[in-house]
Amino acid sequence: MIMNILVILLVGITAWILAAHGFFSALLHFACVVVAGAVAFAAWEPIVLLFLGARMPDHAWGLTLAVVFAVTLFILRLISVKACPAQVHFSTTTNFIGGAVLGAASGVLTIGIVLLSIQFLQMPSELLGYRGWKVDERGEVNRPSGASGRLWLPVDEWTAQFYELASRGSMYAPNNLARLHPDLAQAASLYSESINGGESRQGMAPDQVKIRNVYEINGDTLRDPRKFLDEQAKGIDRRVQAPGDRFKIVIIDTEIDNGAADKGDRLRLTKGQIHLICRAPRAGEDEYIRLFPNAFIQQYKSDSADEGRFLYDGGDLAATSVGGATSGIAMKFEFIVPLDWQPSHLEVRAMRAPIPRTAPIAWTEKNLTDLETAERPPTAGARGETRPWLGYLLGLLCVVLVMVVTVQEPKRTHQD
Question: What is the 3-class SS of 100-112, one letter each residue?
């Protein structure tokens, strides 16, 4: 409820102020917001990888997006005032109504980017009554029921969809937002989906995750694909459609650096923190879809190198390292993928690792089902080394910074 009221209030303030500035100023401001957002998303990942990711991995994604957007918007507004120093004459009604409409559009994009930024900070899973997406008690990624699942003005979803569509259209680039970060609003919401409602670490430094091998079980080789997949995965993501219900199992073998672990040298990864981005063939341009693992494979005893396979069948279940690793932590993540889809890259805590171009290694159904599953994986344990107050402070800074730039008067002279 609080987040709903706050979003509507901020969008309303933006619309009211820009309506007071007039239609022409509101039009220029809207153009500046669109361009500033495009620049922010374009520079977002490179800045994280080159500068902030290693220094503050839990907050780098959110802080980078908000600051680049605010700085770019400030510069563009200065340029627009210098380039267009005078107002264009419109009637009072046109100025107010047109300014309010464009102001509301600017407010949606502005507050949408701010909300996406805040969700990419180290935060509790539920932020001021809003959660967006979560891993439910059955281990499925769904929206929470009630008001926490969707905003009355879903500015984060609208903003993400706007720039994803633009990145495939008028703002096209080969490595575009829709390809590298599809379903961005969902990814932002799940960034805080760590154990105990956000108490474990949520970020990761560059190069802390590496893909060692990719294994594949072709659906055609399974004796009863649908029965096997239903029993193992507790149901398939309803958004994933495959012609003739033909699926394959893809297993990503990763090595994760010890530096990504929580205090106490335990690495804990929930289902919501592991995403496989796949290229889905479509009529025309291919679409990229975000999938989540149905199981993980890992060492589960400190005195044995044996691996066990465990379903992600609970909301707070995490793949948890046993400790004692000196060079890296080995974990495998199992995904159910339509047969004609091609895995593109893996995201672990928002950090992207490309899938090797080599052919996947065949793995049989027997290999998978014969893994030891008699014991549960290591217990995720208590609170990790997190500082939620820092996330709130940075989130407030993002809001203030962007709103200060937004409400600046353009200082244009009147022209009849």
Answer: HHHHHHHHHHHHH
